[in-house]
Write a structure and sequence with these properties.
The chain is α/β, with parallel strands linked by helices and 366 residues long. The protein folds into two domains: 114 residues, Enolase-like, domain 1, CATH 3.30.390; 225 residues, Enolase-like C-terminal domain (TIM Barrel, Alpha-Beta Barrel), CATH 3.20.20. 39% of the residues lie in helices and 20% in strands. The chain contains 14 helices and 14 strands. The strands form three sheets. Strands 6, 7, 8, 9, 10, 11, 12, 13 and 14 form a nine-stranded mixed β-sheet that branches. Strand 10, helix 9 and strand 11 form a beta-alpha-beta unit. Helix 1 packs across helix 3 and helix 7 runs parallel beside helix 8. The longest helix is centred in the N-terminal third of the chain and has 19 residues. It is globular and about 60 Å long. The two termini are 31 Å apart. Bound molecules: [(2S)-5-oxo-2,5-dihydrofuran-2-yl]acetic acid (MUC) and magnesium ion.
Length: 366
């Protein structure tokens, strides 16, 4: 079975709760739905989130690279030739989430063709992921109210606090209010999206040392190598690489150079093929990972669940799988649900991303 065409469909869905964080903000999901068409009529689907402040991609750049470069370069390739596809796509630098979506859509075709859930094909470790919810910038008491609501309504007890603000006391206070309000059983960690310097990050770690934060993600700019290395060496909690380690090479580099000792794996930017390589590398080096989010829609989230549940090393921690709840609507024909803080893999052939075509027609940008 061969690829005949790759289609990129731009759409926009508003957010009910816009998210603000140190590197940017989102008020609408102006994403791109990618469809891989084949000569046997099977179509694979994946979602692509443009994040100019992280990967330099925009909705238009994703459409252009998918339709003008990847579609002609990958057409004619056998659907199982995933590593060849990666090699071809890697001739074009960057464009991280566009590459990730093409890979996931190809896996979706493979699962549909073999009549198997992709999570089983990838590793089949378990049937669900525990959910972590990401809290954007807000006053501390509002954050606590939101977290308590998420716990009450969805059973979520793991929260990532967006940090990186100035003065740093804003985030230190938010961390303290969350810990005191949620109690010792809640799992809490912070993500500063490079908002602080290494010294500010060290000061935050010092002042939050009694709060049981499990790790700190991307505190400062990892390119400021010595500052980051000093931070990692001296921190009593792990320092995680997210946007400093978007692919296999950078993930290996950050671990080997002491820029991080924990890794976020995001299917939106790594697809399943490269994410599997990052996972193997991390496991072999004794590095823990977690499934991060790219403020994913339900289409993106089910891809993360598919990957995360497939492996012991990714499913042992909560994955960031619930920010679609901040959106006004979504495209999945059968909406996701979170019960007792868990999302289950879909027991259907492929990834489980059947699209509601009426909704797509409604939200697509013509
Ligand atoms: C994160 O972990 O940094 C921020 C932007 C985005 O797309 O995802 C995030 C979450
Ligand atoms: Mg992050």
């Amino acid at each position: 079975m061969k690829i005949t065409r790759i289609e990129a469909i731009p759409y926009s869905i508003p957010y009910v709760h816009p998210l603000h964080f140190a590197s940017g903000s989102v008020a609408e999901a102006d994403h791109v739905l990618v469809r891989v068409h084949t000569d046997e009529g099977i179509v694979g689907v994946a979602d692509t989130p443009p994040r100019p402040y992280t990967y330099g991609e925009t909705q238009k750049s994703i459409m252009a690279v998918v339709e003008d470069i990847f579609s002609p370069q990958l057409s004619g390739l056998d659907i199982f030739a995933r590593d060849r596809m990666q090699t071809v796509m890697d001739r074009t630098v960057h464009n991280q989430t566009a590459k990730g979506a093409v890979d996931i859509a190809v896996w979706d075709v493979i699962g549909k063709y073999l009549n198997q859930p992709v999570s089983s094909l990838l590793g089949g470790y378990t049937d669900h992921m525990t959910v972590s919810h990401m809290l954007g910038f807000k006053p501390a008491q509002e954050l606590l109210q939101m977290a308590l609501e998420f716990r009450e309504k969805h059973g979520i007890n793991t929260f990532k606090l967006k940090t990186g603000r100035h003065p740093i006391t804003l985030d230190i206070e938010a961390a303290r209010v969350l810990r005191e309000g949620l109690g010792p059983e809640a799992h809490l960690y912070m993500d500063a999206n490079r908002g602080w310097s290494a010294n500010e990050s060290a000061e935050v770690l010092r002042q939050t040392a009694d709060l049981g934060m499990e790790f700190l993600e991307e505190p400062d700019d990892a390119r400021e190598v010595l500052g980051r290395r000093r931070l990692v060496t001296n921190s009593s909690i792990p320092i995680a690489a997210d946007e400093s380690a978007p692919d296999l090479g950078t993930a290996a580099r950050e671990i080997l150079t002491g820029g991080a000792n924990f890794l976020a794996i995001k299917t939106a930017r790594s697809g399943f093929t490269e994410a599997t390589k990052i996972l193997g590398m991390a496991q072999g080096m004794g590095i823990d990972v977690y499934v991060g989010n790219q403020i994913d829609t339900q289409v993106g989230t089910i891809a993360s669940v598919t990957f995360g549940a497939a492996f012991a090393h990714t499913s042992k921690r909560a994955g960031e799988l619930s920010n679609y709840l901040d959106m006004a609507d979504d495209l999945l024909a059968e909406p996701l649900s979170i019960e007792d803080g868990k999302i289950f893999v879909r027991d259907v052939p492929g990834v489980g991303t059947a699209i509601d075509e009426d909704k797509l027609a409604h939200y697509r940008n013509h």
